[in-house]
Amino acid sequence: MTAAAQENKRHFLLASDRSDQSSELADILQSVGKVESIATSEIPEKPARQVSGIVVDINLRSPESVQRVRNKLRGEAYRSMPRLFVLAEALHHASMQAWALGATDTISRPFDAAAILQRVRSAFPDSASYDATDRGKALNRGVEAAHAVIVKMFERLPAGEPLTFSDVVQAETKILKAIKHTSLREWLTTVGCHHADSYRHCLFVTGFAVAFAQNLGMREDDQRRLARAALLHDVGKAFIPVALLDKPGALTVEEMEEMEDLLSLCGQTVHGEQPEPFKSETKH
User: Fold this and answer.
1) Which of 2, 67, 180, 229 is most buried, judging by how many CB atoms fall within 10 Å of its CB?
2) What are 259-274's pLDDT values in tens digits?
3) What is the CB-side half-sphere exposure of residue 66 using CA atoms within 13 A?
């Protein structure tokens, strides 16, 4: 591999306090990027410029490990990059601990290589296709902002962490700028690799809605409302069990009642200062 090709690959920091168990994950990640395995005590204060993001594999029940990682990742340098945390099991406590430490996404053992690679491709920029121009930066920032809202909606809400109005507003600004300075085609191409059907669907709908609003020359306030509604239109799915959501046949009467009960939670999921239109959008 040439030096240029090597530079274009994703570059991961794999920080672990359980190196004997992290080798499997390192092997998986190496198929889509360069992996630099380090102990959590060796996490640099400021990562090198070529680092795409950090993967943290620690014992989340260990106060010492948790505090060490919290201290290392609280710096500004890590707030702007993807932070993927490994869970020993997909339990509520471990998930909440990871989010509290600043995770932008999580994976859990036992590892599913295909699923992990899909998550990595969507969350970690590949510098080979990461456009360094202002146009490309705007597009990537918009997609990353939308992705962060959807991750929080589908994975953190069921764990009890609220989605705030400010979370959505911050994403709206980047989404509007991304599509204004690029195109709907580029947006759709960029989000086409996202790992979950619900994620991809929400991102596609958001792109179409914003492009539609901008092509009609709508006021920015109206563009924001449309972007907001598109991002949140499937929020009720966050509370619906996968078995019920993906059932191939018709739902029974009991299942329909369960679905309606779960969807009623939508109006209770977004917290913070909310203007009246926002309340109606989430209820919708």
Assistant:
1) 229
2) 777 666 655 555 444 4
3) 14
The residue type at 101: L
The contacts of residue 14 (CB under 8 Å, 6+ apart) are: 22, 25, 26, 29, 35, 36, 37, 38, 54, 55, 57
What's the CA gap between 67 and 62, in Å, rounded?
9
Closest C-alpha to 54, from 71, 67, 40, 66? 40
What is d(CA 191, CA 61) in angstroms, rounded to the nearest whole number? 35
Question: How many other C-beta atoms are found inside a 10 Å radius of the C-beta of residue 167?
Answer: 19
What's the pTM?
0.52
**pLDDT score at 133:** 62
pLDDT digits (tens, 9 = 90+) for 118-176: 777 766 756 555 455 667 788 888 988 998 888 888 877 777 777 788 888 889 999 99
pLDDT for 126: 62
Confidence of residue 4 (pLDDT cuts 50, 70, 90): very low
Instruction: Indicate the SS3 state at residue 13.
Output: strand
Q: What is the 3-state secondary structure (H, E, C) of 140-174?
A: HHHHHHHHHHHHHHHHHCCCCCCEEHHHHHHHHHH
State the alpha helices, DSSP H only, in 124-252.
134-151, 165-181, 184-191, 197-215, 220-232, 242-245
**How many CA atoms does the CB half-sphere of 248 hold within 13 Å?**
0
pLDDT digits (tens, 9 = 90+) for 24-45: 999 999 998 899 999 999 999 8
Residue with tokens 């274009």: 8
Residue 165 CA to chain centroid, in angstroms?
17
Domain 9-123 has CATH 3.40.50.2300: yes
Domain limits, the chain? 9-123, 134-283
